[in-house]
Design brief:
With 221 residues, the chain is an all-alpha fold. It is built from ten helices and no strands. The chain has helices at 2-11, 20-59, 81-87, 96-110, 114-125, 145-150, 159-176, 181-190, 192-198, 205-217. Helix 4 runs parallel beside helix 7, helix 5 (114-125) packs across helix 10 (205-217) and helix 8 crosses helix 9. The longest helix is centred in the first third of the chain and has 40 residues, at 20-59. The radius of gyration is 39 Å and the shape is globular.
Length: 221
């Protein structure tokens, strides 16, 4: 019977391939194995995808959170960038009528002249209550956050609070430097540390120009 099974195809002009059935069986087996492997790998792949997504989320710091939860090196950010984006609203310059009373009250309380406060406000912020400098100084009199906190200013973008804080800070500087307005203004611009280091007005072009502009506006030579 086996011989006849091989003989009949020869008689019909067909050349039987004894390996055809084997190849077909092997291909079917390989296909089943691939399906099996894919099915078994999918849960692992899903876990891997979930892990990568979780790591990506942890690499993005939440507001107020350190970015070192994923990276060993702290996340570098442009200085003041977040502060400016979150805090700086749009605003228009305030008028003398709007802040005149606040300036007068602060000047009388701290023994200053209203013209001095106005000159500083004009130089510092051009009367923009929302002004933020590249270094992070805030508001009309450009208070640094640490200075605002020390002067008990809760909202440096509030014109009255900012003027109150700025005038108190200026009075402290005048007391520190024996009422020398040049040194007090130099310290207001460059910081008391620089005035102390140089034993006088710091030789910074910005500071020299700053002090000169305000004294000139006050008519002081």
């Amino acid at each position: 019977m086996i011989a006849l099974a091989f003989l009949l195809p020869r008689l019909w002009g067909q050349a039987p391939d004894p390996y055809e059935a084997m190849r077909t069986a092997m291909e079917a087996s390989i296909a089943r194995q691939q399906d099996s492997v894919s099915g078994s790998m999918e849960p692992a792949a899903a876990k891997q995808r979930a892990s990568i997504q979780a790591q990506a989320r942890s690499a993005t710091p939440a507001p107020g959170e350190s970015a070192s939860t994923f990276f060993t090196v702290s996340w570098p950010r442009p200085p003041g960038f977040a502060t400016e984006m979150q805090r700086m609203p749009e605003c228009r310059p305030v008028s003398q009528d709007e802040i005149g009373d606040a300036i007068q009250e602060a000047a009388e309380r701290e023994g200053l002249t209203p013209d001095l406060l106005r000159a500083i406000i004009h130089k510092e912020s051009s009367y923009l209550p929302c002004a933020v400098s590249p270094k992070g100084a805030l508001g009309l009199m450009q208070l640094m956050p640490a200075t605002a906190s020390a002067m008990k200013v809760e909202n440096p973008f509030d014109p009255k609070q900012n003027i109150d804080g700025g005038s108190r800070f200026l009075r402290k500087l005048l007391n520190r430097y024996g009422n020398d307005l040049t040194l007090a203004l130099g310290a207001y611009n460059a910081g008391p540390g620089n005035v102390d280091t140089y034993g006088g007005l710091p030789p910074f072009p910005e500071t020299i120009g700053y002090v000169g502009d305000i004294l000139s506006k006050l008519g002081v030579q």
